[in-house]
């Protein structure tokens, strides 16, 4: 049983945060650098592109590991990385294919390992995250930030799978991606980050200003998951 904290204990705690800039500053504010974030949306609306852009940006703050559990790291994913503007200069960003949760935990437990972990997609880990495993992961790695990507269910408004729904409840920041635009909410100021200005304008029928300096649109020729 954990020790109860006094008011003095509460106020004397020290927390570390992420200093967000550019397009991320207004909607994200200055979030803590641990816990759970969620990115979700329907297929072909820009989830993966947004996740990769965000991973690239966060890798300027800390070491980032992107687990491409659904697509793997083959040709299609490589193209998605290119569309997100990722280059060989992004040396603080690494990628792996799916590996069992226990192996992933062993990997991120190592000294100098990534402290920000993107898991794309939570559906692949659904069985492994049942029975309290998601909460246990959060408790076991209190200094890590886990960013889960999830599909939206057919009814709209909620992530697909039970682990995705629980993730939304636990998430400090929730990013709902639709029409190449991400709506940011949760324990942050909230707002919009445009994934791709041209595609978002086509989807919403008006001009959307894209201030995301990390979005490379030169190779973006189609809507991505």
Question: How is this structure best summarized?
Answer:
This protein has 225 residues and is of the alpha/beta class. The protein has a domain at 32-178: Rossmann fold. Helices cover 28% and strands 20% of the residues.
Map the helices and strands.
Layout lengths: L6 H5 L13 H4 L6 E7 L5 H12 L5 E5 L6 H9 L9 E5 L3 H8 L7 E5 L12 H8 L4 E7 L10 H9 L2 E6 L2 E6 L4 E4 L2 H8 L21
Parallel strand pairs: 1-5, 1-6, 2-3, 2-4, 4-5
Antiparallel strand pairs: 6-7, 7-8
The CATH architecture of the domain at 32-178 can be given as 3-Layer(aba) Sandwich
Strand content: 15-25%
Structural class: alpha/beta
**Major beta sheet summary:** 8 strands, mixed
Largest sheet, order of strands side by side?
Answer: 3-2-4-5-1-6-7-8
Within CATH, the superfamily of the domain at 32-178 carries the name P-loop containing nucleotide triphosphate hydrolases
Number of separate helices: 8
Give the % helix.
25-40%
CATH topology of the domain at 32-178: Rossmann fold
State the end-to-end distance.
43 Å
Shape: globular
How would you sum up this structure, described in words?
The structure is a single chain. With 225 residues, the chain is α/β, with parallel strands linked by helices. It has a domain at 32-178: Rossmann fold, CATH 3.40.50. It has 8 helices and 8 strands; from the N terminus they run H-H-E-H-E-H-E-H-E-H-E-H-E-E-E-H.
């Amino acid at each position: 049983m954990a020790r109860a904290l006094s008011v003095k204990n509460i106020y004397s705690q020290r927390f570390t945060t992420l200093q967000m800039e550019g397009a991320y500053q207004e909607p994200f504010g200055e979030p803590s650098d641990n816990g759970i974030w969620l990115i979700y949306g329907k297929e072909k609306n820009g989830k993966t592109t947004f996740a990769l852009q965000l991973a690239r940006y966060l890798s300027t703050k800390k070491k980032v590991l992107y687990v491409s559990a659904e697509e793997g790291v083959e040709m299609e994913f490589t193209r998605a990385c290119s569309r997100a503007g990722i280059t060989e200069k992004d040396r603080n960003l690494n990628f792996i294919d799916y590996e069992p949760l226990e192996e992933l935990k062993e990997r991120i437990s190592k000294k100098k390992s990534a402290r920000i972990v993107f898991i794309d997609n939570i559906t692949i880990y659904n069985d492994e995250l049942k029975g309290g495993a998601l909460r246990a992961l959060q408790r076991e790695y209190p200094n890590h930030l886990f960013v889960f990507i999830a599909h939206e269910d057919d009814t709209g408004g909620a992530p697909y799978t039970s682990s995705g729904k629980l993730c939304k409840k636990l998430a400090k920041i929730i990013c709902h991606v639709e029409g190449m635009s991400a709506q940011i909410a949760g324990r942050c100021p909230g707002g919009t980050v445009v994934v791709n200005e041209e595609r978002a304008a086509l989807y919403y029928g008006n001009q959307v200003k894209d201030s995301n300096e990390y979005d490379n649109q030169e190779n973006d020729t189609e809507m991505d998951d």
